[in-house]
Each structure stands twice: as C-alpha cells, then as structure tokens.
Amino acid sequence: MRNIDASEITKTVRKLCMEANYYLGDDVLNALKKFEAQEESPLGKNILQQIIKNAEIAKDEEAAMCQDTGFAVTFVELGQDVNIDGNLYDAINEGIREGYSDGYLRKSIVEDPLRRKNTGDNTPGVIHVDIVPGDKLKITVAPKGGGSENMSEVRMMKPADGVEGLKDFVVERCRKSGGNPCPPVIVGVGVGGTFEKCAFLAKKALLREVGSEHPDPFYAELEKELLEKINNLGVGPQGLGGRTFALAVHIEAHPCHIASFPVSVNLNCHAARHKEAVI
Predict the structure, then answer these.
(1) Contact of 36 with 122, CB cutoff 8 Å
(2) Cis geometry, peptide bond prior to residue 237 (ω within 30 degrees of 0)
(3) CA-CA distance, 23 to 196, in Å (whole number)?
(4) Which end of the chain is less enclosed by CB atoms within 10 A, N or C?
(5) At what angle do helices 6-22 and 88-102 cross, to 10 degrees?
(6) Nearest 10 degrees: CA dihedral of 54, 59, 61, 64?
(7) Cβ-contact 266, 206 below 8 angstroms
(8) Measured between alpha carbons, how far is residue 131 from residues 4, 30, 264 in Å?
(9) Which residues pair with 117 in a beta bridge?
(10) How many Å apart are CA 141 and CA 274, to the nearest integer?
(11) What is the DSSP string of 51-106?
(12) What is the mean pLDDT of residues 159-169?
C-alpha cells in the first residue's frame, strides 16, 4: 500500500487549474491550424487566426485564454493500492480554491442554483473518481465554460431509432447551438448506459486527444461521418459562417438496457482545456 498525503493532491490540483487555463493543448492548436488552412470563408479564416493568436498570448503571458475560466471538472483515477492521508474531496477543492485565487482566474460558481450567491473561490468542483489497478493517482482538471455547457442535451431515444436517429440528433443539436458554444468546438457524444452515465460519457469523450481515432473501426467511421455532416451545416467559427464548426467528434459507448437507447451531446468551446498529472 502506498501513502499519498492530501497536501500533495492540493498542490497538484492548484497547478493544473492554472495550467489548464493558460496553455491550450498542442492537439487543439494543431487542429485549429489545420482547419484554418482549409477554411473557405475569409471571415471564418480570420476568426480562426485570432483564436490561434489568443492562445499564443495566453501562453506567453500566463493569462487565462478565456474570461470564462469554467467549472473545475476533475477526473480522478485512484489506484486501488493507494492510501490517501486526508480527505480526497477536500484536498481537490482546496487545490481549486488556491489555483483560481492565485492564478487570478474568474470565480463562476454559485452555491445554490436558485439562490445565486457566488462561492467566491470557484468551489466546489465536480469530481469524478474511478478506482483502477495500481499504486498511482492520476488527476485531470478540465475547466468547462458555461456557454458550451448550456448547449448540452441528453435524449432518451427508442432502440428502433438506431444509428440514423443518433446522427440526426447530434447534427441537429449542433445546428441549434449556432454560435452559442463559441465554435469551433469539440463534440462529445455519449451512447448507452443510463441517463446519468450517458451524460458522463459525453463529458469524458472531450478528454480524448483531438485528431485521435476511436479504437473501434465502427465508431471511428461514425465520428468521421458526423464531423463532415456537422461542418457541412455552414455554421462556421463563432457561428458566423464557414466550414469549421467542429474540430472533432469523439464518441464514448457503454452497454445499455434492451429497452433503452440514451444518447447525449456535450460541446466544448475552442478553449478545449484539460491538463493531467500522475502522483
């Protein structure tokens, strides 16, 4: 059994909160440059150039790439041979508190959805924990902005709707979203499981490296088809027209009940932020 002090978790989360908001991943930057080179709309091309420049300024100045520094969504893979000296959730929230304060990141969380008083430190985070083999602790912080999150949807479809029904739903969700999620976006799609599992899968799908292929050829082909259909909508960067609404479509699937066919869509804005560390 390996011991990890809670203070080490706090220190790691603090750092990840700042780095995720300052440094856009190379995979996203490379995708932005690729789509900028092939964008047919002059306005769309100009918007993509500004987004790339914005990411470069954020990195150089260590400043938030977007004023909406997001809900601190945190994914934890906890090795079954790890013992934490302290409370895991408290340690993560303290890291969020310190990271958002010390990093001069906007605090966006209200303590109650109906009595909307700001907590003042961007806590609590949304924390997902998986128990995995081994004696390591992997933490991924994925700040999620409100504009893109508001364009999410879960639909309990009929099994008879099948793959064509899924395609229609995902494409229509993107069309209705327009410029609201600050495109170009990453489209996370969850298929199967239960109502809540399906939504989680769509969020988890956003962590995949942009440009990577799904390991299952069936889903890899479906992702390509959906990306083409979505970009053919003409919504374009920031919803102002063009061929680049999405940089990628990522699908996560899970077994489901014979009577069910849940499908979810979770969009991530062009500030597709997430950083990870292993303790």
Answers:
(1) no
(2) no
(3) 30
(4) N
(5) 40
(6) 70
(7) yes
(8) 15, 33, 24
(9) none
(10) 5
(11) HHHHHHHHHHHT--SSS---EEEEEEEEETTEEEES-HHHHHHHHHHHHHHHTTPP
(12) 98
Tokens of 8: 């080490």
Quick check: bond before 217 cis, omega within 30? no
User: Which of 256, 234, 2 lies closest to 135, judged by CA?
Assistant: 2
| pTM of the predicted protein model | 0.95
Provide the pLDDT confidence category of residue 86 given band limits of 50, 70 and 90.
very high
Mean pLDDT of the chain: 97
φ, ψ (nearest 5 deg) of residue 65:
-75, -15
Place of tokens 């769309």: 44
Per-residue pLDDT, averaged over 142-152, amounts to 97
Alpha-carbon distance of 184 to 12, in angstroms, equals 30
Q: Label the pairing between strands 153-157 and 261-268.
A: antiparallel
Residue 272: DSSP 8-state: -
What is the C-alpha separation between 156 and 47, in angstroms, rounded?
36
Scored b (16 or more CB within 10 A) or e, 186-217 reads: bbbbbbbbeeebbbbbbbbbbbbebeeebeee
Band (122; pLDDT cuts 50, 70, 90): very high
Residue 147 contacts residue 66 (beta carbons within 8 Å):
no
**CA distances to 26, 111, 171, 247, 274 from 115, in Å:** 40, 8, 35, 37, 30
CA atoms within 13 A on the CB side of 253: 14
